[in-house]
Amino acid sequence: MMAALFTTITACDPKKKNSSETESNKTTTTEDITQLEDTVSTSPQAIQPKGPKPDWAPASLTPQMQAVLETLDSLSAGKKLTDLTPQQARQAPTPTDAVKTLMQENNIPMPPSKVDTSGVQIPVSEGKQIYARIYTPKNGAGPFPVIVYYHGGGWVIANLDTYSASAQGLAEQVGAVVVSVAYRQAPENKFPTAHNDSYAAYEWVLKNAASIKGDPKRIAVAGESAGGNLAAAVSMMARDKKAQLPLHQLLVYPIADFSMNTPSYQANANAKPLSKPLMAWFFDKYLKSPADGKNPMISLVQANLKGMPPTTIITAEIDPLMSEGKTLADKLKADGVPVTYQNYKGVTHEFFGMATVVPEAKQAQQLAAAELKKGLDK
């Protein structure tokens, strides 16, 4: 499992446990410099791809992003998720695995954790339970603001470990308790199971925030990809049920349109790690029928968005979902919702959790944390 990639990494000499062990008048020798250079990690800017840009990629694809995709291709041995069963796809290498491999190859250390983790079972429909992992800042007594986080994976693949970097990083940078929700996945559980599970988890947090060192009055939702869709749907459900509304929602390249015929779908139909065929595969597995795709909880761009919480939307240039993310931002604004929108050029879907190797991810994470802090500072 990857530790948080949000944290800035400071290179140091591991032979020195603390500064007090270093004599102030020690002379630096050539041998000392060589030893220090051997321990200093590679900066993201130094990471370079090994081959030419893929045929589907625009000229703007950054070297670091290309290196991640090359590594993922190597780990995947050319296998496409669309050729696998959902069960097989859940075992396939992920972008998180590619980042971890690049870190190892380039001597980039894993940042030390600034959170404690624990787990909880949350009751959902039909007498079932789902698991949630709780990330609690080590520093401070609380009560902390709370972020309910929903991972990506098209409602079909990925898990809490795949997106642990994002959840842990939000906890560390915002200074919040993050509750990362393992909603039930398709095709075993069709629409709207993941959506209902996600709302049940939000309700649980509203009622139990104090028990996890959280402030029940300062709660936000966040998610990536399918998780971004779930976060927005939770806000919509809370509004419609007249429940406590999240103070802020962070939507990172959210799924927001079933049409799959937007400009970015056309431009990035064959992109990686997310392509148009893979999105069609996800929809096929989660939705009971194409009619479900028109439901406002799936096609957020067609929903009534009035009364939604202040929103931050982050998109990637080389991503089929970029256009619908921008459209969602525009429609939220038109419905009177305060919106911060930022598109990051040269990067693809899933870039957000890659701050140790992709500079744009670090920028996006800093923006997300700043906006969440602002929204939760009530």
Keyword list:
single chain, 378 residues, alpha/beta, Rossmann fold, eight-stranded mixed β-sheet, 34% helix, globular, AB_hydrolase_3, Alpha/beta hydrolase, AB_hydrolase_fold, hydrolase
Describe the structure.
The chain is of the alpha/beta class and 378 residues long. It folds into 2 domains: 45-105, no CATH class; 115-376, Alpha/Beta hydrolase fold, catalytic domain (Rossmann fold). The protein is 34% helix and 17% strand. It has helices at 30-39, 63-76, 86-89, 95-105, 164-174, 193-208, 226-240, 263-267, 276-286, 322-334, 359-376; strands at residues 115-123, 129-137, 144-150, 177-182, 214-224, 249-252, 311-318, 339-348. It has an 8-stranded mixed beta sheet, with helices on both faces. This is Alpha/beta hydrolase.
* CATH topology value of the largest domain: Rossmann fold
State the low-pLDDT regions, or none: 1-41
Supply the CATH architecture of the largest domain: 3-Layer(aba) Sandwich
DSSP helical segment count: 11
Amount of beta strand: 15-25%
Radius of gyration: 21 Å
Judged by helices, strands and strand pairing, the structural class is: alpha/beta
Q: How would you characterize the largest beta sheet?
A: 8 strands, mixed
Give the topology string: H per helix, E per strand. HHHHEEEHEHEHEHHEHEH
The domain tally reads 2
Bulk shape: globular
Instruction: Please give the order of strands in the largest beta sheet.
Output: 1-2-4-3-5-6-7-8
CATH superfamily of the largest domain: Alpha/Beta hydrolase fold, catalytic domain
Mean pLDDT across residues: 90
Biased composition (Polar residues): 32-46
Pfam families: Abhydrolase_3
Organism: Pontibacter populi
Protein name: Alpha/beta hydrolase
